[in-house]
Design brief:
Oligomer: single chain
Mean pLDDT: 82
Radius of gyration: 28 Å
Bound molecules: oxidized coenzyme A
């Protein structure tokens, strides 16, 4: 059968036995080149395998849940136009030893998309450098007009080979931004299993270079101008658990992916979820907001010398997240105090023992333990509101995050199963995660899955503050510096060591009475030293 071809898993880098999490086509479906066929998920990434050429799906060789590796058969295509495909057909005979093809690479210019009425727009930031690996949709440069700022995103994943603009340049639609070297279309490229015979190879045309990208539609640029559409949280968008085809759909529809609740495996966002989200917005079920009033832009240099210091990568990521939480979650902060006189005496007594085990026993370990115990009694404080705002998601696990101050900015490593760890194990985890955070060695998994966060400024000072909730969590505990204060006890003032607590909570989920019950319980737990230091069964 001359027009029949096998589509196999392409080279997917270092990954092996990757799970098929979605089949996007059925037998009988007509597919065009680059149409996504299946979605694969490793522990690091979700990727689509696109059709290498047009054809009709004859049969599928994989199902959801299968583990596949490079070279595994995905499906059979019929009606393949071999002239345009530039490839040799598969025969009905079992395939002879195929030589796995190297992924084809191509290099092309990414150009400024159609900017509507704008021309000669200022480049105010270049977000990448030569040699950087970029993801599809990752911002390359930021443009600014007097009305709006927008990122020009990478149309494909690849490596930057040249920068064609610099900060201060003025650009218009069609001007080059960078040159990008890609591995064919999408994150990975599907390839024909059957290589051409030596004779065919001699005459076969070389693989067609990837077509240069069509100028991007205005929808591809991300306007942060106050507008009727919901603003896209770029940092959240790039992290959202969705395949490239779903991301593309979300871009086309202007959907802010972090706001969409994923119904797929492990919370992955599917195309149906994106469409359902759009429907809810149109029906008015989901508020999208109308943008915030812009802040005045001041030319500080008019008043004296200034120095411009770019934000760190972490600041660029955490800033929009903090902002999103602050503007989306109605924060209330409940301040309280815990009497930690006995706790501190016990900690001092245990400190040296801990040092012998290579552990630094700081007050924070006790606070984590007390929070884990209190969260058992108040599970609502480790729940999350569903994206549609209609239900609460209760979690049967207790991974607690803590804010760590690093030279590059704020990060939140997460202690896994904090409720199953004793005080020494918690202190050990705090130490090792803090060190990794400061050395920039945290892995993405070390910062995921938290249900509640603690921000301790107690080692530095302060009496109280208003921590910002690490959304989609619903509460965060701020801890300030303990100090000896006069407390009226049994008819006399006595010196007691007092730890200030500041609990911020999402008032949509937690009401004031629950907030103060939580901090009261937490304060009692911190005073109950025997409970805090008891071994975990
Ligand atoms: N009151 C008084 N002293 C305290 C204290 C408190 N509440 N908490 C800690 N301390 C003391 C510790 O005992 C330690 O003293 P010694 O060295 O004499 O034993 C000292 O302060 C420093 O502690 P540490 O910082 O090494 O350890 P930690 O476990 O308290 O904190 C970490 C670890 C990573 C949370 C901390 O280093 C950090 O980065 N804090 C800043 C967090 C932050 O920036 N939060 C704001 C985020 S925005 O909301």
């Amino acid at each position: 059968m001359a027009d029949r071809a096998e589509v196999r898993v392409p080279d997917i880098g270092d990954f092996d036995a990757v799970e098929v999490i979605e089949i996007l086509v059925q037998p009988g479906d007509q597919v065009a080149p680059e149409d996504p066929l299946i979605t694969l998920e490793s522990d690091k990434a979700t990727m689509d395998v696109p059709a290498p050429f047009a054809g009709t799906v004859e049969s599928l060789a994989v199902t959801v849940g299968d583990q596949v590796s490079k070279g595994d058969l995905i499906l059979l295509l019929t009606g393949v136009n071999l002239q345009t495909a530039g490839q040799a057909p598969s025969s009905d005979e079992p395939a002879a030893q195929p030589a796995p093809l190297e992924p084809a690479t191509s290099e092309f210019r990414v150009v400024v998309p159609d900017l509507g009425d704008f021309a000669d727009v200022d480049v105010i930031e270049v977000l990448v450098g030569v040699g950087d690996a970029v993801e599809v949709e990752q911002g390359l440069i930021t443009l600014e007009t007097d009305k709006a700022t927008m990122d020009v995103p990478a149309p494909k994943a690849g490596t930057i080979t040249a920068l064609l603009v610099g900060v201060g340049d003025k650009v218009s639609a069609g001007d080059g931004v960078v040159t990008l070297k890609t591995m064919t279309e999408g994150s990975v490229a599907a390839q024909l299993e059957q290589p051409p015979s030596p004779a065919e190879a001699a005459v076969a045309p070389p693989p067609a270079p990837a077509a240069p990208p069509a100028p991007m539609s205005p929808g591809a640029a991300v306007f942060t101008e106050p507008a009727a559409l919901p603003a896209i949280d770029e940092a959240g968008f790039s992290k959202a658990h969705a395949s490239p085809s779903v991301r593309k759909l979300a871009r086309e529809l202007g959907v802010d992916l972090p706001r969409v609740r994923g119904s797929g495996v492990k919370g992955r966002i599917t195309a149906a979820d994106v469409k359902a989200f759009v429907k809810s917005v149109l029906q008015g079920d989901v508020a999208v907001g109308g943008g915030l009033p812009a802040l005045p832009s001041v030319d500080f240099a008019k008043f004296g010398p200034v120095e411009i210091q770019p934000l760190s990568r972490i600041q660029k990521i955490s800033g929009p997240r903090l902002h999103a939480s602050w503007v989306n979650l109605p924060h209330v902060t409940q301040h309280d105090e815990a009497d930690v006189t006995e706790l501190e005496a016990t900690r001092q007594a245990l400190k040296n023992k801990a040092v012998e085990r290579g552990i630094k026993l700081t007050p924070l370990a006790f606070v984590v333990r007390a929070c884990a115990l209190t969260l058992q009694e108040f599970p609502q404080f480790k729940s999350s509101l569903s994206a549609d705002g209609q239900s609460l998601v209760f979690k049967d696990y207790c991974h607690i995050g803590f804010a760590a101050d690093t030279p590059n900015g704020l990060v939140v490593p997460v202690i896994r199963d904090a409720d199953k760890k004793d005080i020494y194990e918690l202190a050990h985890d705090l130490g090792s995660l803090s060190t990794a955070a400061r050395d920039g060695q945290l892995k993405p998994g070390d910062m995921q899955g938290g249900v509640f966060t603690i921000s301790s400024l107690g080692g530095i000072g302060g009496t109280a503050f208003t921590p910002i909730i690490n959304a989609p969590e619903v509460a965060i505990l701020g801890v300030s510096k303990m100090k000896t204060s006069p407390v009226y006890l049994d008819g006399a003032f006595v010196p007691r060591l007092i730890l200030p607590l500041s609990l911020s909570y999402d008032h949509r989920v937690i009401d004031g009475a629950a907030g103060v019950r939580f901090t009261t319980h937490l304060a009692h737990t911190l005073a109950d030293v025997d409970r805090l230091i008891e071994a975990i069964p």
